[in-house]
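hey so u asked for the seq, here:
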Amino acid sequence: MSETPILVGVAQVEQRIDDVSQGQEPLAMMIDAVRQAADDAGCPQLLSEAGSVRVIRGIWPYANPAKAVAEAIGNPTAETVLTPYGGNFVQTTVNQSALDIRDGVHDVVIITGAECGRSQAKAARAGIDLQWSEAPGTPDRFIGEEVNMRGEAEQGLGLGRPIQHYPMFENALRHHLGDTIPQQMQRISKLWAGFSEVAAKNPHAWIREAKTPQELLTISPENRPVSFPYPKLMNSNNNVDQGAALIMCSTTKAQALGIPESQWVYPWAGTDAHDTYAVSNRDNFYSSPAIRIAGGRCLELAGLSVGELDLVDVYSCFPVAVQVAAREIGLDLNKPLTVTGGLTFAGGPLNNYVMHSIARMVELLREAPSSKGLITANGGYLTKHAFGVYSTQPPSASYQHEDLQKQVDATPTREAVKEYSGPATVESYTVMFGPDGKPAIGHLSCLLDDGVRTWANCEDLDVLAAMITEEFCGKPTRLHDRLASF
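ran it, structure tokens below
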């Protein structure tokens, strides 16, 4: 007989200190969050009862942080688990934990993670060695695997950061929709202003100040241009010290421990899938077969339509990630698509953001019993995806999960070449700005006559200036030595 998995404890922690030498390191924040999550459940005994402690990998030196957490909470024999990098892995870990609880592998699972990006940045500027712990050892188990997502065709051009690829996706979407640049900027500034309004009401958000669309469009020292079309306030905000924890168990265990049903939130269903790992091999830059197939299937498994969702949190590292997901799943961009305020305003603690979105979703579901919420998670360059549906209402069937990779792999992809000289057509592009706020270099994806993709840079300052005011998608160009000329 299968067990029913539930979330019973959630917590979010943060620190805003000026003297970073006096601050907590991420490991200490994880331990605090785990203890607070047990308090949220009203059951400190969960800490010693957990069969597994699972940590989302972050930018820190720890080899086996789950072991250090387990020892700190008085449970040194708990299984220790670590994930690879990727914003999808919180939801993936919840999916796997729900399966483990359903199938009787564990009856209590602790999930945690934390980042101290703000402290790291401040320490680097001040030349301070933070001297964080090493947390040595090897985890008992890994959920997911490290995968190189930089294709050979992109290499050698300085491409590989999210702030380079996501703007190219945004510009490809603009061209696909037939919008002008002003129309695009109006759309994404309105979208992001709505996210900031949610953050202003979220007690856990890093920036709790609503912004107007005009404020988001206006270039200033606080909102410098980063990569066309995105200024700073349309980028994920990694300059945060934030941690979170989730505690899951079976309903049988919750009843035995006396955890009140008012704290219970049921995961109804979950799915996972990834688009082609190398950006070069994507069929196009304005869609995501993995979101369409896995996101849609998650709702099917839950027996819900889009219109039956009361709450949604769409992964929001950049505006295009929200737009693509909304288009693929069928969500209305004019309705709230976040419960936190997103990675710009609520905070973007790298791979761990989704733990905050799930924790906030749990809080809001508890406030509105029987409501239903959807979480979407995204890792890489709009690459790796995980989904989950939650409610305080029990599901009609036991927890369900599917991996949709076989179906996604059957969708079209594209060949790419690294070296090419000759005529091509611009597929998409972005312009990277220097610290002085001036255009520094352009990155272009180009299509050859046979549909093969290649990449090039542009260093002509006059062309770069034109790229931010004129539509260059669809323009003919000539490539030589991986440089584009017009």
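The radius of gyration is 22 Å. The longest strand covers residues 422-433.
lmk if thats what u needed
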